[in-house]
Design goal:
The complex is a heterodimer of chains A (423) and B (101). Chain A is of the alpha/beta class and 423 residues long. Chain A has twelve helices and 25 strands. In chain A, 54% of the residues are buried. Chain B is built from five helices and no strands. The chains are: A alpha/beta (423), B mainly alpha (101).
Chain lengths: 423, 101
Protein backbone atom coordinates (compact mmCIF):
# COMPACT_ATOMS: atom_id res chain seq x y z
CA UNK A 1 0.00 0.00 0.00
CA UNK A 2 1.25 3.47 -0.82
CA UNK A 3 0.57 5.88 1.98
CA UNK A 4 1.17 9.53 1.44
CA UNK A 5 2.47 11.58 4.32
CA UNK A 6 -0.91 12.96 5.28
CA UNK A 7 -2.53 9.51 5.26
CA UNK A 8 0.31 8.18 7.31
CA UNK A 9 0.05 10.89 9.94
CA UNK A 10 -3.66 10.16 10.13
CA UNK A 11 -2.92 6.48 10.66
CA UNK A 12 -0.23 6.97 13.25
CA UNK A 13 -2.26 9.59 15.07
CA UNK A 14 -5.24 7.26 15.34
CA UNK A 15 -2.94 4.43 16.33
CA UNK A 16 -1.42 6.46 19.08
CA UNK A 17 -4.83 7.32 20.45
CA UNK A 18 -5.84 3.67 20.46
CA UNK A 19 -2.56 2.64 22.05
CA UNK A 20 -2.83 5.29 24.74
CA UNK A 21 -6.44 4.60 25.62
CA UNK A 22 -6.15 0.90 24.93
CA UNK A 23 -5.29 -0.23 28.45
CA UNK A 24 -8.88 -0.27 29.64
CA UNK A 25 -10.46 -1.78 26.57
CA UNK A 26 -7.92 -3.93 24.83
CA UNK A 27 -5.63 -6.67 26.02
CA UNK A 28 -2.07 -6.12 24.89
CA UNK A 29 -0.59 -8.08 22.01
CA UNK A 30 0.69 -11.31 23.49
CA UNK A 31 4.20 -12.67 23.10
CA UNK A 32 4.01 -14.51 19.80
CA UNK A 33 3.24 -18.20 20.26
CA UNK A 34 4.07 -20.74 17.54
CA UNK A 35 0.55 -22.11 17.19
CA UNK A 36 -1.98 -20.05 19.11
CA UNK A 37 -5.51 -21.44 19.36
CA UNK A 38 -8.61 -19.42 18.49
CA UNK A 39 -12.03 -20.90 19.26
CA UNK A 40 -14.97 -19.47 17.30
CA UNK A 41 -18.50 -20.14 18.57
CA UNK A 42 -21.21 -20.13 15.89
CA UNK A 43 -20.83 -20.88 12.17
CA UNK A 44 -23.21 -18.29 10.74
CA UNK A 45 -22.26 -15.36 8.52
CA UNK A 46 -19.92 -13.91 11.17
CA UNK A 47 -18.36 -16.99 12.76
CA UNK A 48 -17.68 -19.02 9.60
CA UNK A 49 -16.16 -15.96 7.90
CA UNK A 50 -13.97 -15.20 10.91
CA UNK A 51 -12.68 -18.79 11.03
CA UNK A 52 -11.89 -18.68 7.30
CA UNK A 53 -9.93 -15.42 7.47
CA UNK A 54 -8.09 -16.38 10.68
CA UNK A 55 -6.66 -19.37 8.74
CA UNK A 56 -6.04 -17.34 5.57
CA UNK A 57 -4.23 -14.46 7.26
CA UNK A 58 -2.71 -16.44 10.14
CA UNK A 59 -1.90 -19.91 8.79
CA UNK A 60 -0.07 -20.80 12.01
CA UNK A 61 -3.21 -20.24 14.08
CA UNK A 62 -5.20 -23.30 15.08
CA UNK A 63 -8.87 -22.55 14.56
CA UNK A 64 -11.74 -24.51 16.10
CA UNK A 65 -15.28 -23.65 15.02
CA UNK A 66 -18.10 -24.85 17.29
CA UNK A 67 -21.57 -25.15 15.74
CA UNK A 68 -24.52 -27.28 16.84
CA UNK A 69 -26.32 -27.40 13.48
CA UNK A 70 -25.44 -29.75 10.61
CA UNK A 71 -26.20 -27.19 7.95
CA UNK A 72 -26.12 -23.45 7.38
CA UNK A 73 -29.61 -22.04 6.73
CA UNK A 74 -29.50 -18.46 5.46
CA UNK A 75 -31.76 -15.81 6.98
CA UNK A 76 -31.22 -13.59 3.92
CA UNK A 77 -33.51 -14.99 1.16
CA UNK A 78 -35.61 -16.87 3.76
CA UNK A 79 -38.38 -14.30 3.14
CA UNK A 80 -38.33 -15.49 -0.49
CA UNK A 81 -39.14 -19.00 0.78
CA UNK A 82 -42.14 -17.54 2.64
CA UNK A 83 -43.20 -15.87 -0.62
CA UNK A 84 -42.92 -19.18 -2.46
CA UNK A 85 -40.25 -18.06 -4.94
CA UNK A 86 -37.42 -20.09 -3.37
CA UNK A 87 -37.28 -23.39 -1.44
CA UNK A 88 -35.63 -24.38 1.84
CA UNK A 89 -33.04 -26.25 -0.24
CA UNK A 90 -32.04 -23.01 -1.95
CA UNK A 91 -31.11 -21.38 1.37
CA UNK A 92 -29.54 -24.48 2.99
CA UNK A 93 -25.82 -25.08 2.57
CA UNK A 94 -23.25 -27.54 3.94
CA UNK A 95 -20.12 -26.83 5.94
CA UNK A 96 -18.03 -29.31 3.89
CA UNK A 97 -15.48 -26.76 2.64
CA UNK A 98 -14.48 -25.35 6.03
CA UNK A 99 -12.44 -28.38 7.22
CA UNK A 100 -10.59 -28.29 3.87
CA UNK A 101 -9.32 -24.85 4.93
CA UNK A 102 -7.75 -26.38 8.04
CA UNK A 103 -10.59 -25.34 10.34
CA UNK A 104 -11.49 -27.91 12.99
CA UNK A 105 -15.28 -28.11 13.11
CA UNK A 106 -16.90 -29.39 16.30
CA UNK A 107 -20.62 -30.12 16.30
CA UNK A 108 -21.67 -29.25 19.83
CA UNK A 109 -23.20 -26.61 22.10
CA UNK A 110 -21.19 -24.43 24.45
CA UNK A 111 -22.56 -24.76 27.99
CA UNK A 112 -19.97 -22.75 29.89
CA UNK A 113 -17.08 -20.33 29.46
CA UNK A 114 -14.30 -19.86 32.01
CA UNK A 115 -12.63 -16.63 30.94
CA UNK A 116 -10.05 -16.88 33.76
CA UNK A 117 -8.78 -20.29 32.67
CA UNK A 118 -9.64 -19.49 29.02
CA UNK A 119 -11.69 -22.61 28.42
CA UNK A 120 -15.08 -23.40 26.94
CA UNK A 121 -17.11 -26.35 28.16
CA UNK A 122 -19.21 -28.29 25.65
CA UNK A 123 -22.51 -30.10 26.17
CA UNK A 124 -20.82 -33.29 24.93
CA UNK A 125 -18.56 -33.14 28.02
CA UNK A 126 -15.25 -31.94 26.62
CA UNK A 127 -13.40 -28.75 27.52
CA UNK A 128 -11.42 -26.73 24.97
CA UNK A 129 -8.70 -24.19 25.81
CA UNK A 130 -8.27 -20.98 23.85
CA UNK A 131 -5.83 -18.11 23.50
CA UNK A 132 -8.61 -15.98 22.07
CA UNK A 133 -12.32 -16.67 21.86
CA UNK A 134 -14.70 -15.30 19.19
CA UNK A 135 -18.42 -15.37 19.99
CA UNK A 136 -20.73 -15.22 16.97
CA UNK A 137 -24.01 -16.67 18.24
CA UNK A 138 -26.44 -14.31 16.51
CA UNK A 139 -29.45 -13.15 18.48
CA UNK A 140 -31.44 -14.78 21.23
CA UNK A 141 -35.18 -14.27 20.71
CA UNK A 142 -36.76 -12.90 23.91
CA UNK A 143 -39.82 -15.14 23.73
CA UNK A 144 -40.88 -14.25 27.30
CA UNK A 145 -41.41 -10.68 26.16
CA UNK A 146 -44.72 -11.60 24.49
CA UNK A 147 -47.12 -13.34 26.88
CA UNK A 148 -48.35 -16.68 25.54
CA UNK A 149 -45.75 -16.83 22.77
CA UNK A 150 -43.81 -19.77 24.20
CA UNK A 151 -46.92 -21.94 24.50
CA UNK A 152 -48.14 -21.00 21.02
CA UNK A 153 -44.67 -21.64 19.61
CA UNK A 154 -44.34 -25.02 21.34
CA UNK A 155 -47.75 -26.00 19.96
CA UNK A 156 -46.56 -25.09 16.44
CA UNK A 157 -49.30 -22.49 16.10
CA UNK A 158 -47.34 -19.23 16.11
CA UNK A 159 -43.69 -18.85 15.09
CA UNK A 160 -41.23 -15.98 14.72
CA UNK A 161 -39.24 -17.52 11.83
CA UNK A 162 -36.54 -14.93 12.63
CA UNK A 163 -33.90 -17.66 12.56
CA UNK A 164 -34.14 -19.43 9.24
CA UNK A 165 -34.87 -23.15 9.60
CA UNK A 166 -37.85 -25.33 10.56
CA UNK A 167 -39.92 -22.28 11.56
CA UNK A 168 -39.47 -20.82 8.06
CA UNK A 169 -40.83 -24.04 6.54
CA UNK A 170 -43.73 -24.13 9.03
CA UNK A 171 -44.73 -20.51 8.41
CA UNK A 172 -44.70 -21.15 4.64
CA UNK A 173 -47.05 -24.13 5.19
CA UNK A 174 -49.40 -22.00 7.29
CA UNK A 175 -49.49 -19.36 4.53
CA UNK A 176 -50.19 -22.02 1.90
CA UNK A 177 -53.02 -23.48 3.99
CA UNK A 178 -54.63 -20.09 4.63
CA UNK A 179 -57.88 -19.58 2.69
CA UNK A 180 -58.28 -16.74 0.21
CA UNK A 181 -59.67 -13.76 2.10
CA UNK A 182 -57.66 -14.66 5.19
CA UNK A 183 -55.62 -12.26 7.33
CA UNK A 184 -51.87 -12.55 7.96
CA UNK A 185 -50.79 -10.65 11.08
CA UNK A 186 -47.10 -9.95 11.48
CA UNK A 187 -45.31 -8.04 14.21
CA UNK A 188 -42.09 -6.04 13.84
CA UNK A 189 -39.83 -6.01 16.92
CA UNK A 190 -38.79 -2.77 18.56
CA UNK A 191 -35.30 -1.77 17.35
CA UNK A 192 -32.53 -2.77 17.60
CA UNK A 193 -33.22 -6.18 16.08
CA UNK A 194 -31.67 -8.52 13.50
CA UNK A 195 -32.08 -7.32 9.88
CA UNK A 196 -33.83 -3.92 10.06
CA UNK A 197 -35.49 -4.18 6.59
CA UNK A 198 -36.38 -7.87 7.05
CA UNK A 199 -39.95 -7.49 8.39
CA UNK A 200 -40.91 -5.10 5.60
CA UNK A 201 -39.39 -7.34 2.93
CA UNK A 202 -41.36 -10.21 4.46
CA UNK A 203 -44.59 -8.22 4.11
CA UNK A 204 -43.71 -7.62 0.42
CA UNK A 205 -42.94 -11.28 -0.24
CA UNK A 206 -46.14 -12.52 1.41
CA UNK A 207 -48.14 -9.83 -0.42
CA UNK A 208 -46.58 -10.90 -3.72
CA UNK A 209 -47.73 -14.46 -2.99
CA UNK A 210 -51.24 -13.41 -1.91
CA UNK A 211 -51.66 -11.19 -4.97
CA UNK A 212 -51.16 -14.23 -7.21
CA UNK A 213 -52.60 -17.08 -5.14
CA UNK A 214 -55.23 -15.55 -2.84
CA UNK A 215 -55.90 -11.95 -3.84
CA UNK A 216 -58.71 -11.25 -1.34
CA UNK A 217 -56.31 -11.74 1.59
CA UNK A 218 -54.95 -9.00 3.86
CA UNK A 219 -51.76 -8.31 5.78
CA UNK A 220 -51.71 -6.38 9.06
CA UNK A 221 -48.25 -5.20 10.09
CA UNK A 222 -47.98 -4.37 13.81
CA UNK A 223 -44.80 -2.35 14.17
CA UNK A 224 -43.22 -1.84 17.60
CA UNK A 225 -41.41 1.16 16.11
CA UNK A 226 -42.83 4.63 15.46
CA UNK A 227 -42.17 4.29 11.72
CA UNK A 228 -40.80 1.91 9.07
CA UNK A 229 -37.32 1.31 10.47
CA UNK A 230 -35.42 0.79 7.21
CA UNK A 231 -35.73 1.65 3.49
CA UNK A 232 -39.04 3.42 4.16
CA UNK A 233 -39.38 4.91 0.69
CA UNK A 234 -38.69 1.61 -1.02
CA UNK A 235 -41.21 -0.38 1.04
CA UNK A 236 -43.96 2.22 1.30
CA UNK A 237 -43.64 2.72 -2.45
CA UNK A 238 -44.06 -1.01 -3.09
CA UNK A 239 -47.05 -1.26 -0.72
CA UNK A 240 -48.80 1.61 -2.53
CA UNK A 241 -47.84 0.70 -6.10
CA UNK A 242 -47.82 -3.10 -6.12
CA UNK A 243 -50.07 -4.15 -3.23
CA UNK A 244 -52.59 -1.33 -2.92
CA UNK A 245 -55.18 -1.97 -0.22
CA UNK A 246 -53.59 -5.25 0.82
CA UNK A 247 -51.21 -4.13 3.59
CA UNK A 248 -52.38 -2.26 6.67
CA UNK A 249 -49.46 -0.68 8.51
CA UNK A 250 -49.87 0.18 12.20
CA UNK A 251 -46.87 1.92 13.83
CA UNK A 252 -46.33 1.98 17.63
CA UNK A 253 -48.15 -1.35 17.97
CA UNK A 254 -45.83 -3.70 19.84
CA UNK A 255 -47.61 -6.92 20.78
CA UNK A 256 -47.60 -7.80 24.47
CA UNK A 257 -49.54 -11.06 24.19
CA UNK A 258 -50.51 -13.73 21.70
CA UNK A 259 -53.13 -16.47 21.97
CA UNK A 260 -52.47 -19.39 19.64
CA UNK A 261 -55.88 -20.98 20.27
CA UNK A 262 -58.01 -17.91 19.64
CA UNK A 263 -55.44 -16.71 17.04
CA UNK A 264 -55.26 -13.21 18.48
CA UNK A 265 -52.35 -10.80 18.90
CA UNK A 266 -52.86 -8.14 21.58
CA UNK A 267 -51.32 -4.67 21.54
CA UNK A 268 -52.15 -1.89 24.00
CA UNK A 269 -54.69 -0.61 21.46
CA UNK A 270 -56.37 -3.70 20.05
CA UNK A 271 -56.86 -7.44 19.96
CA UNK A 272 -56.03 -8.30 16.36
CA UNK A 273 -57.39 -11.55 14.98
CA UNK A 274 -55.68 -13.37 12.12
CA UNK A 275 -55.60 -16.67 10.25
CA UNK A 276 -51.82 -16.83 10.31
CA UNK A 277 -49.86 -15.05 13.05
CA UNK A 278 -46.15 -14.27 12.80
CA UNK A 279 -44.94 -12.66 16.01
CA UNK A 280 -41.30 -11.60 16.11
CA UNK A 281 -40.30 -10.79 19.70
CA UNK A 282 -37.48 -8.46 20.73
CA UNK A 283 -33.94 -9.78 20.71
CA UNK A 284 -30.69 -9.76 22.63
CA UNK A 285 -27.14 -11.06 22.25
CA UNK A 286 -26.82 -14.84 22.12
CA UNK A 287 -26.75 -16.75 25.40
CA UNK A 288 -23.09 -17.78 25.13
CA UNK A 289 -22.20 -14.08 25.50
CA UNK A 290 -23.86 -14.16 28.92
CA UNK A 291 -21.83 -17.26 29.84
CA UNK A 292 -18.65 -15.33 29.04
CA UNK A 293 -19.76 -12.23 30.95
CA UNK A 294 -19.74 -10.29 27.69
CA UNK A 295 -23.44 -9.31 27.58
CA UNK A 296 -22.28 -6.22 29.35
CA UNK A 297 -24.24 -3.16 28.24
CA UNK A 298 -26.24 -1.27 30.85
CA UNK A 299 -29.30 -3.49 30.35
CA UNK A 300 -27.42 -6.77 29.99
CA UNK A 301 -28.83 -7.10 26.46
CA UNK A 302 -25.97 -6.48 24.00
CA UNK A 303 -22.17 -6.76 24.04
CA UNK A 304 -20.03 -3.63 24.23
CA UNK A 305 -16.76 -4.16 22.36
CA UNK A 306 -13.72 -2.21 21.26
CA UNK A 307 -14.99 -1.69 17.72
CA UNK A 308 -11.51 -1.65 16.17
CA UNK A 309 -10.86 -5.25 17.32
CA UNK A 310 -14.30 -6.48 18.47
CA UNK A 311 -12.73 -7.48 21.79
CA UNK A 312 -15.13 -7.20 24.74
CA UNK A 313 -14.70 -3.98 26.70
CA UNK A 314 -14.80 -5.98 29.93
CA UNK A 315 -13.59 -9.52 29.21
CA UNK A 316 -10.02 -9.76 27.84
CA UNK A 317 -9.34 -12.20 24.99
CA UNK A 318 -13.05 -12.58 24.24
CA UNK A 319 -14.25 -11.04 20.96
CA UNK A 320 -17.89 -10.68 19.92
CA UNK A 321 -19.02 -10.21 16.31
CA UNK A 322 -22.29 -9.99 14.40
CA UNK A 323 -25.78 -9.27 15.68
CA UNK A 324 -24.78 -9.53 19.36
CA UNK A 325 -22.61 -6.41 19.24
CA UNK A 326 -23.74 -3.08 20.70
CA UNK A 327 -23.01 -0.44 18.04
CA UNK A 328 -24.47 1.95 15.51
CA UNK A 329 -23.83 -0.64 12.76
CA UNK A 330 -26.90 -2.37 11.30
CA UNK A 331 -27.44 -5.95 12.46
CA UNK A 332 -27.17 -7.76 9.12
CA UNK A 333 -25.52 -10.95 7.89
CA UNK A 334 -23.47 -8.85 5.49
CA UNK A 335 -22.26 -6.63 8.31
CA UNK A 336 -21.40 -9.74 10.36
CA UNK A 337 -19.03 -10.90 7.60
CA UNK A 338 -17.24 -7.57 7.80
CA UNK A 339 -17.07 -7.56 11.61
CA UNK A 340 -15.52 -11.01 11.10
CA UNK A 341 -12.83 -9.73 8.75
CA UNK A 342 -11.83 -6.80 11.00
CA UNK A 343 -11.85 -9.11 14.02
CA UNK A 344 -9.78 -11.83 12.27
CA UNK A 345 -7.25 -9.24 11.10
CA UNK A 346 -6.96 -7.81 14.62
CA UNK A 347 -6.55 -11.25 16.22
CA UNK A 348 -3.85 -12.26 13.70
CA UNK A 349 -1.91 -9.09 14.56
CA UNK A 350 -2.43 -9.36 18.32
CA UNK A 351 -1.34 -13.01 18.39
CA UNK A 352 1.79 -12.11 16.41
CA UNK A 353 2.69 -9.42 18.94
CA UNK A 354 1.76 -6.52 16.66
CA UNK A 355 -0.73 -3.68 17.01
CA UNK A 356 -3.91 -4.14 14.98
CA UNK A 357 -4.99 -1.74 12.22
CA UNK A 358 -6.17 1.40 14.07
CA UNK A 359 -8.48 2.56 11.25
CA UNK A 360 -10.54 -0.44 10.07
CA UNK A 361 -13.39 -0.01 7.61
CA UNK A 362 -16.64 -1.98 7.42
CA UNK A 363 -19.38 -1.79 4.82
CA UNK A 364 -22.98 -2.87 4.72
CA UNK A 365 -24.84 -3.84 1.57
CA UNK A 366 -28.35 -5.07 1.99
CA UNK A 367 -30.74 -5.91 -0.82
CA UNK A 368 -34.46 -6.44 -0.19
CA UNK A 369 -36.96 -7.79 -2.68
CA UNK A 370 -40.19 -5.88 -3.16
CA UNK A 371 -41.69 -8.49 -5.53
CA UNK A 372 -40.61 -11.64 -7.39
CA UNK A 373 -38.84 -9.47 -10.00
CA UNK A 374 -37.81 -6.27 -8.19
CA UNK A 375 -35.40 -5.35 -5.37
CA UNK A 376 -33.83 -2.27 -3.83
CA UNK A 377 -30.81 -1.82 -1.59
CA UNK A 378 -29.25 0.14 1.24
CA UNK A 379 -25.47 0.60 1.32
CA UNK A 380 -23.12 2.35 3.74
CA UNK A 381 -19.41 2.41 4.45
CA UNK A 382 -18.34 3.01 8.04
CA UNK A 383 -14.80 4.12 8.92
CA UNK A 384 -13.44 3.69 12.42
CA UNK A 385 -12.19 6.87 14.08
CA UNK A 386 -10.52 6.76 17.47
CA UNK A 387 -12.74 8.26 20.12
CA UNK A 388 -15.77 8.23 17.81
CA UNK A 389 -16.25 4.63 16.73
CA UNK A 390 -17.60 3.91 13.24
CA UNK A 391 -18.49 7.04 11.30
CA UNK A 392 -20.77 6.68 8.26
CA UNK A 393 -19.10 7.89 5.05
CA UNK A 394 -20.97 10.39 2.84
CA UNK A 395 -23.39 9.22 0.13
CA UNK A 396 -24.56 6.10 1.98
CA UNK A 397 -28.25 5.34 1.66
CA UNK A 398 -31.11 3.43 0.10
CA UNK A 399 -32.88 3.23 -3.25
CA UNK A 400 -36.36 4.71 -3.42
CA UNK A 401 -37.79 2.16 -5.88
CA UNK A 402 -37.19 -1.52 -6.58
CA UNK A 403 -36.17 -2.63 -10.08
CA UNK A 404 -35.19 -5.72 -12.05
CA UNK A 405 -31.47 -4.98 -12.22
CA UNK A 406 -31.27 -4.82 -8.44
CA UNK A 407 -33.26 -8.07 -8.23
CA UNK A 408 -30.56 -9.73 -10.36
CA UNK A 409 -27.88 -8.23 -8.09
CA UNK A 410 -29.87 -9.35 -5.04
CA UNK A 411 -29.75 -12.97 -6.27
CA UNK A 412 -26.09 -12.67 -7.21
CA UNK A 413 -25.26 -11.11 -3.83
CA UNK A 414 -26.76 -14.13 -2.06
CA UNK A 415 -24.80 -16.66 -4.14
CA UNK A 416 -21.58 -14.70 -3.67
CA UNK A 417 -21.86 -14.12 0.06
CA UNK A 418 -22.76 -17.78 0.70
CA UNK A 419 -19.62 -18.74 -1.26
CA UNK A 420 -17.60 -16.12 0.63
CA UNK A 421 -18.76 -17.44 4.01
CA UNK A 422 -18.71 -21.18 3.31
CA UNK A 423 -16.53 -21.66 0.20
CA UNK B 1 5.84 2.88 0.80
CA UNK B 2 8.37 5.60 0.12
CA UNK B 3 11.63 5.96 2.04
CA UNK B 4 10.15 9.01 3.70
CA UNK B 5 7.10 7.18 5.03
CA UNK B 6 9.23 4.27 6.21
CA UNK B 7 11.37 6.72 8.13
CA UNK B 8 8.22 8.25 9.56
CA UNK B 9 6.93 4.78 10.47
CA UNK B 10 10.10 3.99 12.34
CA UNK B 11 9.90 7.29 14.16
CA UNK B 12 6.28 6.62 15.04
CA UNK B 13 7.12 3.11 16.26
CA UNK B 14 9.80 4.49 18.49
CA UNK B 15 7.49 7.21 19.78
CA UNK B 16 4.38 5.14 20.38
CA UNK B 17 5.71 1.64 20.76
CA UNK B 18 3.76 0.51 17.69
CA UNK B 19 5.61 -2.52 16.48
CA UNK B 20 4.55 -3.43 12.97
CA UNK B 21 2.79 -0.39 11.57
CA UNK B 22 3.89 -1.50 8.09
CA UNK B 23 2.26 -4.86 8.68
CA UNK B 24 -0.94 -3.21 9.91
CA UNK B 25 -1.05 -1.16 6.71
CA UNK B 26 -0.72 -4.34 4.70
CA UNK B 27 -3.45 -5.98 6.76
CA UNK B 28 -5.58 -2.86 6.27
CA UNK B 29 -5.43 -3.42 2.50
CA UNK B 30 -6.26 -7.10 2.82
CA UNK B 31 -9.15 -6.42 5.16
CA UNK B 32 -10.75 -3.62 3.12
CA UNK B 33 -10.34 -5.71 -0.04
CA UNK B 34 -12.01 -8.64 1.68
CA UNK B 35 -14.94 -6.32 2.41
CA UNK B 36 -15.58 -6.13 -1.37
CA UNK B 37 -15.80 -9.93 -1.52
CA UNK B 38 -19.02 -10.11 0.49
CA UNK B 39 -20.77 -8.92 -2.72
CA UNK B 40 -18.26 -9.68 -5.47
CA UNK B 41 -17.54 -13.22 -4.26
CA UNK B 42 -14.55 -15.00 -2.68
CA UNK B 43 -11.30 -13.68 -4.16
CA UNK B 44 -13.38 -11.20 -6.17
CA UNK B 45 -14.78 -14.00 -8.38
CA UNK B 46 -18.52 -13.56 -8.81
CA UNK B 47 -20.87 -16.47 -9.49
CA UNK B 48 -23.59 -14.36 -11.15
CA UNK B 49 -24.77 -10.94 -12.31
CA UNK B 50 -22.48 -8.93 -10.02
CA UNK B 51 -19.20 -8.35 -11.95
CA UNK B 52 -16.01 -10.17 -10.97
CA UNK B 53 -13.17 -7.88 -9.88
CA UNK B 54 -10.26 -10.32 -9.59
CA UNK B 55 -7.40 -9.84 -12.03
CA UNK B 56 -8.52 -6.37 -13.14
CA UNK B 57 -5.77 -4.04 -14.32
CA UNK B 58 -4.83 -1.82 -11.39
CA UNK B 59 -5.15 1.47 -13.28
CA UNK B 60 -8.54 0.41 -14.64
CA UNK B 61 -9.72 -0.47 -11.11
CA UNK B 62 -8.57 2.88 -9.71
CA UNK B 63 -10.15 4.84 -12.56
CA UNK B 64 -13.49 3.06 -12.13
CA UNK B 65 -13.58 3.78 -8.41
CA UNK B 66 -12.72 7.45 -8.98
CA UNK B 67 -15.34 7.66 -11.75
CA UNK B 68 -17.99 6.09 -9.51
CA UNK B 69 -17.12 8.66 -6.86
CA UNK B 70 -17.25 11.64 -9.25
CA UNK B 71 -20.35 10.37 -11.01
CA UNK B 72 -18.49 10.07 -14.36
CA UNK B 73 -19.48 6.39 -14.31
CA UNK B 74 -23.10 5.69 -13.41
CA UNK B 75 -23.90 2.53 -11.52
CA UNK B 76 -26.36 1.26 -8.92
CA UNK B 77 -24.61 0.88 -5.61
CA UNK B 78 -20.98 1.68 -6.29
CA UNK B 79 -21.07 5.44 -5.80
CA UNK B 80 -22.17 4.85 -2.21
CA UNK B 81 -19.23 2.50 -1.65
CA UNK B 82 -16.67 4.62 -3.52
CA UNK B 83 -17.27 7.54 -1.15
CA UNK B 84 -16.11 5.36 1.74
CA UNK B 85 -12.49 5.01 0.61
CA UNK B 86 -9.49 7.28 -0.03
CA UNK B 87 -7.54 7.51 -3.29
CA UNK B 88 -4.63 5.77 -1.54
CA UNK B 89 -6.96 2.91 -0.66
CA UNK B 90 -8.19 2.67 -4.27
CA UNK B 91 -4.55 2.25 -5.31
CA UNK B 92 -3.89 -0.38 -2.67
CA UNK B 93 -7.08 -2.33 -3.46
CA UNK B 94 -6.37 -2.06 -7.19
CA UNK B 95 -2.93 -3.61 -6.73
CA UNK B 96 -4.37 -6.34 -4.51
CA UNK B 97 -7.19 -7.36 -6.88
CA UNK B 98 -4.79 -7.21 -9.86
CA UNK B 99 -2.74 -9.86 -8.06
CA UNK B 100 -5.72 -12.22 -7.61
CA UNK B 101 -6.26 -14.43 -10.61
Amino acid sequence: MTLNRRDFLKVSGAGAAVALTGCATQSAPTVAKANPHVVVVGAGFGGATCAKYLKQWGPNIEVTLIEPNDKFVSCPISNWVLGGIRTMDDITHGYDNLPKRGIKMVKDYVVGVDTGKRTVKLKGGSTISYDRLVLAPGVEIMTDFVKGFREAEAAGKVVHAWKAGPQTALLRKQLEAMPDGGVFVMSVPTAPYRCPPGPYERACMVANYFKKAKPKSKIILLDGNPDVASKKGLFMGAWNDLYKGMIEYRPNNAPYAVDGNKMVVSTEFDDVKGDVLNVVPRQKAGEVCEMAGARNDSNGIWCAVNLATFESTTVPNVHVIGDSVLSNLPKSGHMATNHAKVCAAAIVELLAGRQPDPIPVVANTCYSATSDTTSGYVANVFRFEAGKGYVSAPEGGATAKGDELNFAYNESWAQNIWAEVLG
Amino acid sequence: MTIKTIALSLAACAAFGLAGVASAADMHTKAISATCMSCHGPGGKSLGAIPSINGLDKDYFVKQMKDFKSGARQGTIMKRHAFGYTDAEFEAMGAYFASLK
